[in-house]
Predict the structure.
Amino acid sequence: MVTAADKVDLLVVGSGAAGSVFAAEASAAGKRVLLLEAGPARTPDDLVSSQLWARRQKWGGAHVEEEGNHRVGHNFNAGWGTGGSTMHHYGVWPRLHENDFRTSTEFGQGMDWPFQYAELRPFYDRIQGAVGLSGDATEERWRPPGEAYPMPPVPVFGQGRLLAAGFARLGLHTAPLPLAINSVPYRGRPACLYDGWCDAGCPIGALGNAQTVFLNSALASGATVQNDSTVTRLLTRRDGRRIEGVEYRTGDGELHRQYADVVVLAAFTVQNARLLLASANDRHPQGLANSSGLVGRYLMTHPTVSLYGMFDEETQPGFGPTGGQLLNQDGYDNKLAVKDAYGSFQWIIANAVKPNGLLGIANNRADIYGAQLRPFLQRAVNHLGVMTLVAEDVPLPENRVELSSKRDAFGVPLARAVHNLDKAGAALVAHALEQGAAVLTAAGAREQWRGPQAGMHILGGTVMGSDPATSVTNSYGQSHDIENLFIAGPGLFPGSGAVNPTFTIHALALRAVEQLLRDWPSHGTQ
Amino acid sequence: MESLHKRRSLLKALVLSYPLVSGALLLSPAQARQRKLPLAVLDDGEAADLESVIEALVPGSAEAGAVHFIDYQLARPAADSLLMLRYLGVEQPHLNFYRAGLEALAQHSVRRFGKRPSALPAAELDTLITDLIADDTPGWSGPPASFLYFVWRSDGVDVTYGTEDGMASLNTPYMAHIKPEQVW
C-alpha cells in the first residue's frame, strides 16, 4: 500500500550541510518544509566520546560498490543520521581560492565555475557570521578577500608548535586553521574543550554542524525532519517537465509518496547521482536532470595522506581539534608549479589522534603488532606529531557514479563509484609528500612514516555550469531540465580545489535558496 | 589539565546488552567473556581461532573480550554496528566477511602446520601472522589475508585501547565530553 501525505512547499532530501541551509531559510520565509532523512534521529545525548561509537555516524545505508586506483571512500566520508556528514565532520573551513573558480581559463585544466569568487564571497562571510569561525585572517597570507573571523584561533598544543617550527625552518608559513569550532562562547554555544573527540560528534555544540546551527533554525521556524525515510525515486509529472514529489520507504519497509512544489536533492554526492539515475522514466530515459548525459560524471575526491613523526618532546597528540590546529597553503595559487603535475595542495597540521580508529595511532603503524604494540602506543600517545595533505583532484568524465546491476533491499540499483587518480594528480601528491617529509625532518622528528593514501571528501557527479550541454544544473543547483528540482551539496562543484568543502557547501546553499525564494518556480501546467 | 582528566565519562560504546526474561544484562566485553556468555553468531571453532589470532596481534585483547565484542556487533543490525569494517566498503552482512576470513585462515593454518590457529604454539602463530601480512597464502580463498590482518588487529586495538581503561593503561587521559546540560 502506498500512503501519501499532504503536499509541502519544499521537500529536502537529506538533513546535512546543504539541506539544513535550504530548510532554515525557506522555513523562515514561511514555506512549509519537510526534510526526509534516511538515517536515524540524533540528539546530543546520543553522542559519546569514543572512536567506536563514532562509527554509527558514518554511512549505514545501501552498499556502494567502489572501483579504481584511488577510491573515494564513500562509507568513511558519508554520514548517517540527522545532520548527515556534518555530525562527524572536523570543522575545517578554509575558503576556495580565486583561481579555483577558473582553472580552465587560467591553467587549461578542468572546468571553470559558472561564477567567480567575488560572487560567493558575501555568502562565505554571512555563513561565517552565522556559524562562527575561529582563526586569524591576517595570518592566512594566502586567504582570498573576506571578513575577519569572528573568533580568535584555537590554542596550539605541543605538536603544533613543533611542526610550525619545521615549516618555518624551510621558509614556509603556518597560520591558525580556520575552524567552525568555538574558541570562545558564540551565539549561545560554548567554547571547545580541546579534548580531541570531534570525530565522535560534539555533544556540547562547540563545533558548528547542521544540528547546532541551520537545522536548529529550521526546526524553530516550523520545518519537520522525518527520520528513517529513504527516498527511492523522484516522481515527475506525466510530461516530465516538473517534479511532483518522491517515493520513500520507512523503516518498516512501507512505501510512501510525498508531493512538493519544489524538491531539493541534498543526499550527498553519490546518493544524489544514484537517485537521479535510478529515477529514469519514459520522459527521462537516461535518468532525471540528465539530458547532458553528465549525471554521475566528474566524480572527485581530495587525495590525502597523513604524515607522522615521533618526537623527543611532549606533543600532546590527544588534545585539540581532530581537524588540526594550523594550516599551510604556501604555493596553493600556482597550480603548475610542479613539473608534470597539476593542482594545489594544503597541509592541515597537528590533528588530534586517539589510540584506536581508522586514523588512530595504532592504525598509522599497522606493521607493529604483538609485544611491540604497547610500547609503541605508550610512546606515541605523548610524542606523536601529525600533518595531513589535502590535494586537488582534476574533474575527469570517466570518474563517475553509475548504477550497479545489484539492487538494495528496496529494489533500487546500488551505486558504483569509479575513481582513478591521473598521472598529474599522482605527481602532485608525490611532490607534496617530499615536502612533508622535509618538514618533519626540519621539525626534529626522530622517526617518520606515512599513512595510506585515501580519498577525503566526495565531490562532483552533478556539476553546475552555464551550458546545459556540459553541466547538470545552473549556478544555483537548479536542474537545467526540470525547473522545480534543485541539487545541493559538493556534487555541484565543477572543480575540487584543495580545501575542505563544507564551508563552500554552506555558501552555495545559501546563495541558491535565496534565489529559489526570490524566484519560486511557478506551478506551470504546460 | 587535571580537570580535563576528571571529566564525566559517557562510555556507552563498550556495553553489551544481553536480554533476560525481565530487562537486560549490561556487561562489558571483558565481563561477557569472563562469564562465558554464549556467542550469538560465531561458533566455538571460529571464536577460538579468532581469539588466538587477535590476542597474538594485540596482547590483552582476549581478556578484554574482543571476540564477544565482535560477535555482538556482527549480530546486531548493520547500521548499529561499531566495527571499523563499516568504514572500509565491505558489503553487509559483515558476518560473511568474518566467517569467510576465519575459514580461509583455518584452512591455511591446517595446510601449513596441520592444526587450526587456536592449537598453534606462539612461534607458529607468529609465522601464520607473517603469512597474512605478506599475503603469502597459496590457495587462499577468502578476503585478502593482509586486509584481514588489518581488520582483526584494529578490532583488537578497539577493545583493548579504545576504552577509558585501555587509555589509562597507556597513561593518557580519556577526556570524555561533559554531558550537555541542555539540548542544543
Remarks:
- The first helix of chain B runs from residue 2 to 5.
